């Protein structure tokens, strides 16, 4: 990754960051994302550890109602797509979406905070994720595990491993040059699909704090109407961002 700038946290935020400022070409996997959208008829997505928002922006432009969360303040301030500040060492995300997308994040989360991560994954009926393997280097890689570790943990949250879809996305990712998804990408499905009450929806549209940041709507226009506030995360409204589109009911 010579020539790229790595965003890193400092001091009490040292555990955050590690993403490529310009966007990591090794995590950009549009063929995989398009496959998941069509395969599972996706309408909404939560991007956990969104970095600079490149994946979230892709999902948004593909027509999905997109919620991006990121822990490092500088990433949130400068993200290509508006994101909420959520530090997974302090709280989890609480929402209902079709897909949770999480690339190159879980290895940065210490074991003592893994349940915050898993609770955030439980927001979706489908999960696609990558993980760093034992012995793999990297900035603040503190939880390097084989796939069985994550599969077993996710069973506690009623996720089932989809081996065929996992095999497919790894082959697609290899064609995209998305080496991390090709190496360790996994697709899982929650066994509790019936718990999603899709009749209870609420419009999320909250004000953007960063005045310079563009606001997006699901129809591609710049301004949203009918504002309504909603809590994201256990500690209340962590970040106020402008979104437009229907999401299933937030957890209390």
TrEMBL record:
Lineage, top-rank taxon, reads Bacteria
Checking InterPro entries in the record gives: SAM-dependent_MTases_sf
Protein's UniProt name: Class I SAM-dependent methyltransferase
